[in-house]
Structure formats: structure tokens, C-alpha cells
Amino acid sequence: MILNAAVKGLLATSALLAVYVVVLTFVSGWGFAQSQFASFWYFIVLLALGFGIQISLYTYLRGIIQNGQGTEKMLGVTGTT
Asked: Averaged over 31-53, what is the pLDDT?
């Protein structure tokens, strides 16, 4: 269950970075996308990692609930937080 959550988190992180590069390239060109990523890579990577961690936690908690170890209220409260 933990490995599944970690894989989904890494996929979410990669997907968010890919969407960023594709959208920025489409709107302003490849050179601009490269310069922006070079200038602000630490913000972009941290944002993508935070998103991946959220997806991992959500996947893990959903798995706990599906296995009967928790209640649906737990997922609702943690998701809202």
C-alpha cells in the first residue's frame, strides 16, 4: 500500500512538472520555458513535490479505508485539511 502511494505521488509530481513545461512552451516558446525554469526551479520543484506528497497521502489514506482499517470520516477530515 505504501509503495502504491509513493508511485502515484511520483507520477503526480512528474505530471505537474510536465504540464508546466508544456503549457509554458506552448504559450511563450521553448527558450522562455527554459529560462523561467532555470530562474525559478526551486519554487517549481517544491510546488510539484508538495502536490505529489498530497496525492501520496490521499492514496494511502484511501487504501486504509478500503481495507477496513479506518472510517470515511477520516478521509473527509484529512482531505479538507
From this structure: 96
